[in-house]
Write a structure and sequence with these properties.
Elements lengths: L9 H21 L3 H14 L4 H10 L3 H14 L4 H52 L1
Helix pairs in contact: 1-2, 1-3, 2-3, 3-4, 4-5
């Protein structure tokens, strides 16, 4: 009896190799070796830009929240209903949304103060004009 290869389909073997590399990267992330994990994940993403799990783990290894946001956006591009990516992206963007809401409120009050200032200036000019016009 001949030995049957574990994978008959070459694409299935490639997929298994990608998963093995992803698992290696995850183990490196857990060991806090983020640069090595990032290199593996970058290679995986370069090979397949639609590899959502690689994008998700890449979001953990990057240096800034903006980069993590880009990675999570890519996860949601590939898998729109990925709860992990959506909740992580929400947590990243909540402070920015609060900041933007506060900025809108401050602009409103700035505009009100500006209008009141001009009303005061015009009122003073009118009072001066009326005072000198009468005399």
């Amino acid at each position: 009896m001949s030995a049957v290869p574990p994978y008959d389909d070459p694409s299935q073997a490639e997929r298994a190799a990608r998963i093995d590399r992803l698992i290696d990267a995850i183990e490196l992330v857990k060991a806090n070796d983020l640069k090595a994990a990032q290199a593996i994940l970058r290679d995986l993403i370069r090979d397949d830009a639609d590899f959502a799990d690689a994008w998700l783990w890449m979001s953990v290894t990057v240096d800034t929240l903006d980069q993590a946001s880009v990675c999570l956006d890519n996860v949601l591009r590939v898998k729109p209903f990925n709860r992990d990516a959506a909740s992580a992206l929400y947590r990243i963007r909540v402070p920015a949304m609060k900041f933007e809401r506060r900025r809108v409120q401050l602009r409103f009050w700035r505009d009100i103060a500006s209008v009141l200032l001009w009303i005061l200036v015009l009122g003073c000019l009118y009072a001066v004009f009326v005072t000198y016009a009468v005399t």
